[in-house]
Amino acid sequence: MSPCPNRFSFLEGYIEESVDILKRHFHIVCHKDFLQNPALHGPKIQAVFMWNCCPAAEPSLLKSLPSLKVITNGGVGIDHLDVSLINSFGVKVANTPGVVSDATADIAMGLLLASARNIVEYNMIAVDPKTNYVPQNLMGVEVTGSTLGIIGMGDIGYKIAQRSKGFNMRILYHNRNRRSAEDEQAVGATYCKNMDDLLKESDFVALAVSLTSKTTGLIGRRELSVMKPTATLVNVSRGLVVDQDALVEALRSGTIRAAALDVTHPEPLPRDHPLLSLPNALITPHIGTNTFATTMKMVERMVENAVAAVKGLPLPDEVKLK
Ligand SMILES: O=CC(=O)O
């Protein structure tokens, strides 16, 4: 793609190397600069580049961007965007599916292993010379050969299954649609039409669904009570998929063993949130895609979507309402 200095876009929260990619194709207007003079910048903006932590694309913003062709989101989840509202302004929405799946599946496995084997606690013990090292008091649970239940078997869920196969895990999955027999065989996954069957049998339950009205609160008090008391809940989807109050209660009462969460609601959690002080909750601040390689791939894909929209061409990853 050739440089196109007549294209304008927002910019917020980008690493330097990715800014270079953006600048090859767009003049950049940072969100904070835009806010200082919307009347000057607004009419020129043709593409908004955003992450899910950015301010929402509200009607007042959309009205102030008459030349806008596309909102291009870094990441697969677009639950923070009202696609039909945005489309009603003649603006397309794009995301970056595919390129985020490996890194997100890696984080799911990282959380699973860290929680199972108390890696964070042991790191604290190892670096604190005052602590007595008594491993018997902090036994981990075995990952190899255990049962993993994956809820949401899209690209990310499937990549979690691929990784789990290397740990000789028994893999159960629950998904709106059953995967093909070849997909199931390739990772040795068994379909559970009924989610409770998966919850009852799994030592680890990994959530990899998109957040929709159907998946909001999918794991609540009842579902947690169906899980084994020795089970660990891993969430790399969205915080709202889990009823957090019910989760706190389940972790306190021993209804389940532990939770390892890359996503919460809200993000970040307020400093006094009970989840932050529970010894059996391991929290990371939504870093599923946060590697250099994946970030660069996301930005490249965001740019491809934006350039296509500005040129009036089909978008590689347009989000279309079903
Ligand atoms: O949260 C990350 C994503 O939606 O890709």
Can you walk me through this structure?
Keywords: Oxidoreductase. Pfam families: 2-Hacid_dh (PF00389), 2-Hacid_dh_C (PF02826). Residues 109-288 form the D-isomer specific 2-hydroxyacid dehydrogenase NAD-binding domain. It comes from Kryptolebias marmoratus (Mangrove killifish). Residues 16-319 form the D-isomer specific 2-hydroxyacid dehydrogenase catalytic domain. The chain has 322 residues and is of the alpha/beta class. The protein has two domains: 16-95 and 291-311, NAD(P)-binding Rossmann-like Domain (Rossmann fold), CATH 3.40.50.720; 100-283, Rossmann fold (3-Layer(aba) Sandwich). Helices cover 36% and strands 16% of the residues. The chain is built from 13 helices and twelve strands. The chain has helices at residues 16-25, 31-36, 38-41, 59-63, 83-88, 101-116, 119-127, 155-165, 181-187, 195-201, 221-226, 244-253, 292-311; strands at residues 8-11, 27-30, 45-51, 70-74, 92-94, 147-151, 170-174, 189-191, 204-207, 232-235, 258-261, 281-283. It has a seven-stranded parallel sheet, with helices on both faces. The chain has a five-stranded parallel sheet with strand order 2-1-3-4-5. The radius of gyration is 22 Å and the shape is globular. Glyoxylic acid binds next to loops. Residues 52, 75-77, 100, 288-289 line the site of glyoxylic acid.
